[in-house]
From TrEMBL:
Matches recorded under InterPro entries: NAD(P)H_nitroreductase, Nitroreductase, Nitroreductase-like, YdjA-like
TM segment ranges: none
Record keywords: Flavoprotein, FMN, NAD, NADP, Oxidoreductase
Protein name in the entry: Nitroreductase
Amino acid sequence: MLAETIKNRRAIYPDAYNQEPISKTEVTQVLEAANWAPTHRRTEPWRFKVFHSEDSRNKLSTFLGEAYERSVDKPSAFKRKKMEQKAIQSGCAIAICMQRDPEESIPEWEEVASVAMAVQNMWLTAQSLKIGAYWSSPKLIAFFGEHTPLAEGERCLGFFYMGKYHGELPQGTRKSTISEKTQWL
């Protein structure tokens, strides 16, 4: 049931991934689910840059380390290494990008929301395929266009890391119930 898939979705971080490869077919299934996200006026603003091969993930790793150094005032060798490892530990890393409607026919926040819904579709599909996933939006995304060409009006919103994993998912929790967040009028 869909409600159970939603409740069981978890962020699985790259350090929990094993070395089992993710097939191109599985990545395509995840991306195909993204393409069915709601979109106002059919702008379909989601764009993805896929780093599936080991070579492309190694190059992304190098970029992430260098961009991290430039994005903070006091870089830490530990944090740089952690940033670099995310791409290496993943079976696939996907840059989550948004292509702004050139006509600006709808508010930007609606296109950001559409991209977020596309990522939720990706996450639920990955979960159903027993693939762990995690969305990271570090400050260094501002430099992504220096590593991978972006179209005019396109920007990176983060990275979606995926990997196969062993073990059980942690139990989900919420700080409060939905009734505490709902006002019936």
